[in-house]
Amino acid sequence: MRLFSTLKNRSKEDGILFLMLFCLFLIAIYFPLFYHLDYLPIRLYDEARRAVNALEMAHNWNFIVTYYDGEPDMWGKPPLPIWFMAISMHLFGFDELGLRLPSALTGLGVVLTLVYFSKKYLQDYSLGLIAGLILVTSGGFIREHVVRTADYDVYLCLWTLLYTLSFFLYTEASDEAKRRKYLYASAAFITLAVLTKSVAGLFFVPGMAVFALVRGKVGQLLRSRHSYFALMGILFFVGGYYLLRNHLTPYYINTVMHNEVTGRFFNAMQGHDHGPFFYAENIFNYHFHPWIYLLFPGIILGLAQKGKLGRLSILLVLNCLILFSVISFSKTQLSWYDAPLFPLFAVLTAIPLNLLFQRLAGVKSIPNWKNFSLGTLFLLTLFAIPYFKTFQTIYKPERNWKQHEKELYGYYIRNHPNLDHYFVCNIGYNAASKFYIDNLNRRGYTIGRFHPLKTQPPEAILLICEQEAKKTIREVHHIYPLMEWKRCELIKVTGNKRDYQVNVKELEENKKAKE
């Protein structure tokens, strides 16, 4: 009875200590994930395109076909993240926060998955907490195009992590019911990954196949009818979506094959071919610095562990090697393609740090509260500098507006909501300004768009933020300045220079031919 009472008190004390540490952990991860999420305007390219897709979906309620400017968007990937963005904007507002909040919440899901898995299946809560802290202080995860903007990659991080861990639990399960549960869970998350980012959702599947071979589970997979049911489920939902979308918008599958497979892997799209060391340099210098110095010791220690952690390390290393090889030798290389690596890196890097933490917090010659304080002090000291550097990147971040002047239109519109009845004068594609204009016009505003070479009647009010547009406007119109803000100008047209005649269509075609 005395032993039972002691164990019960120790268990209760451990629970209190874990709760205290977890509360500190939640406070720490809040800032990298959510703080100043809406500070900067919508990014020009991918985020802006997704923003317009979500805005149009939120109003046309078409959850199968994504639209841009009232037409089916043939460049769009499957619509799963767009659903979340459209729903979020309905709930939280048609603005940057409503658009980006699903990404931040998904990032939170990635972090909490690491903690939950570590505590429940590895019986080691501190490993998950340390991995989570590593992840939220990794530049490749807490960045634009992943957690901090409305893009697809953080969703891909969550689904690929979940199907990897589910498959690992399948290989560990001792009875048929558990194996079946984890197998179907893995298939469901694979389906979600593909419906998020097409073929990129399958990049960890080869590593899982090799792991099944290493663990001697291939025969078990092939003999089980549930493996085939799971595969049929993936094909049914993924194939069903693509066939339906192709029926509604013919040639969609052909476009996907070109954009996501043949074009992207075998040809450098839009000049994004940076060589085989592109991702290695990014990871070493920016995306996983300074944790990269502990990654390889973590891999060695992880592979040397016995039991579940050692076997999990094998699977994580296989997945990392295969994905890293695929993206490094693909012809099209974009800096965020390495994002799914970082949750896996975080677990491996956490292994040596967790051993140190447990050594400090497990000294039996002093009371538990002292152990807890010593271990917590160790973590605070270790993460202080990386956390501070991460915080610096999210606290009132500033653009180089000379390089990102096209994004200034949205910034201006957002910061001057009382202005109405004017024209936005931008050159070429600008989905970012389109989102702001369309959103306000749906609310009763009258904001137009026009090319600077087109003449405007006197008294027209124009918003110009691009240097080229400013120069052109002054060549075509007589103007009167009304307001300046950053690099933007609000002007009034007082007359047209009648002797200045330019064929706008011919000019744009010549410019495109030169590019």
Overview of this protein structure:
The structure is a single chain. The chain has 515 residues and is an alpha/beta fold. The chain contains 20 helices and seven strands. The chain has a five-stranded mixed β-sheet with strand order 4-3-5-7-6, sandwiched between helices. Strands 1-2 form a two-stranded antiparallel ribbon. A hairpin with a 2-residue loop joins β1 and β2 (71-72). α6 (153-172) packs antiparallel against α14, α7 (176-197) packs parallel to α10 (225-248) and α13 (292-304) crosses α15 (341-361).
Mean pLDDT: 87
Principal-axes shape call: globular
* Count of individual beta strands: 7
| Biggest β-sheet strands, sense, barrel | 5 strands, mixed
Question: Which structural class is indicated by helix and strand composition?
Answer: alpha/beta
Terminal CA distance reads 82 Å
Helix content: 55-70%
Which percent band covers the strand fraction?
A: 5-15%
Report strand order across the widest sheet. 4-3-5-7-6
The assembly state of the depicted protein chains is: single chain
Q: Give the topology string: H per helix, E per strand.
A: HHEEHHHHHHHHHHHHHHHEHEEHEEH
Low-confidence stretches: 1-10
The gyration radius over C-alpha positions equals 26 Å
Helix count, DSSP H or I runs of 4 or more residues: 20
